[in-house]
């Protein structure tokens, strides 16, 4: 694996990175800002295996496995966060196994190229492990691109965060700080939430709870999209479907849906994980996104971990080490002055089922 720690200073390297293009077992630590020359060398050296054929439909297909909701100690399921009967506009609260209320909150957003997936998908299995570490995990659904075009998806997840805050007392939640964790398209939406904190023009307050805040205080993005107009030929159609037009022809217009163009100096901390053989979302997107976040905020707000040769949604990424590191990042936001009293190194497997939720 490979580590980037992107800061706001001039490049400072303890030694020239040694990148072995034939090995997936590479450790590189870089501190300071990645300059263009270094980034170009890394891009060349890390493109091992990128010519493999792959099927975009397979990469973003809908779930065949679902979370077994009966395994959890306590849940509140199928809660509408706006005044519709649309089951896409609902959320599920999974309460922690340990800890006393009010419980700190992680919001989970599923992937699927904005066109597939749902809030009960097994793709969110690893996020549910946070319930074993004292966190309530809230799995949020949103309308897919076949039903509604952008910015419906952002409006949905913002409405969900407002609902969570407006009903925190009823559901015994601590919503002073909310971290949102998403993969792929869910990582994109998580980043967009952060990039548009406090921007009323980016939400639809008519969806309810207009006096509550939709701001988030941290993001975990696993192989998320940061620029919808710069996806490869094989995956650009998922962005076209989301936006309702050709995003390359209207790249300037598509910036409204790209987190990298919406960063401001108040962007919250973000931890990203990406594979360098990702043929759906190029890993360079996360490198450039992290770099720009730290440039604009003038702080080390963004941390990026790359896995050499890992593909989009690869099992190389879905490891307990990455879950642990993601939770370490979240702990620093939720417990800034002390350790998370509920953290352990013990994680139990999250059960899944092939039975589609009714």
Index terms:
single chain; 358 residues; alpha/beta; Rossmann fold; ten-stranded mixed sheet; two-stranded antiparallel sheet; 8 helices; globular
Present the secondary structure layout:
Blueprint: E1 2-5, E2 29-30, H1 36-46, H2 56-59, E3 66-67, E4 75-80, E5 90-94, E6 103-109, E7 135-140, H3 152-166, E8 173-183, H4 185-195, E9 218-222, H5 236-243, H6 251-254, E10 270-275, H7 283-297, E11 302-307, H8 320-334, E12 352-353
Parallel strand pairs: 1-2, 6-7, 6-8, 8-9, 9-10, 10-11
Antiparallel strand pairs: 1-11, 3-12, 4-5, 5-7
The helix-and-strand class reads alpha/beta
Helix and strand succession? Answer: EEHHEEEEEHEHEHHEHEHE
The CATH homologous superfamily? Alpha/Beta hydrolase fold, catalytic domain
> Total domains, how many?
1
Major pleated sheet:
10 strands, mixed
> What is the share of helical residues?
10-25%
- CATH topology heading: Rossmann fold
The separation of the N and C termini measures 40 Å
Strands, count: 12
Q: What is the overall pLDDT average?
A: 88
**The top level CATH class name:** Alpha Beta
Unreliable runs, pLDDT <50, ≥5 residues? 7-32
Reported CATH architecture: 3-Layer(aba) Sandwich
- Rg, alpha carbons: 19 Å
**Approximately how much beta-strand content do the residues carry?**
15-25%
Spatial order of the strands forming the largest sheet: 2-1-11-10-9-8-6-7-5-4
Number of helices: 8
Shape verdict: globular
């Amino acid at each position: 694996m490979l580590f980037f720690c992107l800061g706001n200073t001039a490049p400072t390297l303890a030694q020239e990175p040694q990148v072995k293009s034939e090995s997936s077992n590479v450790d590189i630590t870089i501190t300071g800002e990645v300059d263009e020359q270094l980034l170009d060398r890394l891009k060349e050296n890390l493109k091992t295996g990128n010519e493999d054929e792959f099927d975009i439909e397979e990469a973003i297909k809908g779930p065949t496995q679902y979370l077994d909701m009966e395994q959890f100690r306590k849940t509140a399921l199928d809660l509408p966060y706006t005044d519709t009967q649309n089951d896409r506009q609902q959320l599920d609260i999974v309460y922690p196994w340990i800890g006393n209320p009010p419980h700190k909150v992680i919001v989970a957003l599923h992937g699927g190229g904005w066109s597939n997936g749902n809030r009960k998908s097994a793709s969110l299995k690893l996020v549910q492990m946070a319930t074993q570490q004292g966190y309530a995990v809230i799995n949020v659904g949103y309308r897919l691109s076949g039903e509604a075009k952008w910015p419906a998806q952002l409006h949905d997840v913002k409405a969900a965060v407002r609902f969570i805050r407006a009903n925190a007392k009823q559901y015994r939640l601590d919503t002073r700080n909310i971290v949102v964790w998403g993969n792929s398209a869910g990582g994109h939406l998580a980043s967009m939430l952060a990039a548009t904190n406090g921007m009323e023009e980016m939400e639809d307050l008519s969806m309810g709870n207009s006096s509550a805040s939709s701001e988030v205080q941290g993001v975990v993005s696993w192989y998320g999209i940061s620029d919808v107009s710069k996806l490869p030929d094989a995956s650009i159609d998922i962005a076209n479907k989301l936006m309702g037009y050709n995003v390359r022809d209207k790249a300037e217009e598509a910036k409204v849906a790209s987190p990298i163009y919406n960063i401001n100096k108040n962007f919250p901390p973000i931890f990203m994980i990406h594979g360098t053989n990702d043929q759906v979302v190029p890993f360079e997107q996360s490198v450039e996104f992290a770099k720009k976040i730290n440039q604009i905020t003038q702080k080390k707000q963004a941390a990026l971990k790359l896995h050499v040769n890992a593909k989009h949604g690869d099992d190389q990424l879905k490891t307990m080490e990455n879950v642990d590191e993601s939770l370490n990042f979240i702990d620093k936001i939720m417990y800034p002055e002390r350790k998370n009293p509920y953290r352990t190194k013990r994680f139990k497997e999250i059960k899944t089922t092939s039975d589609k939720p009714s």
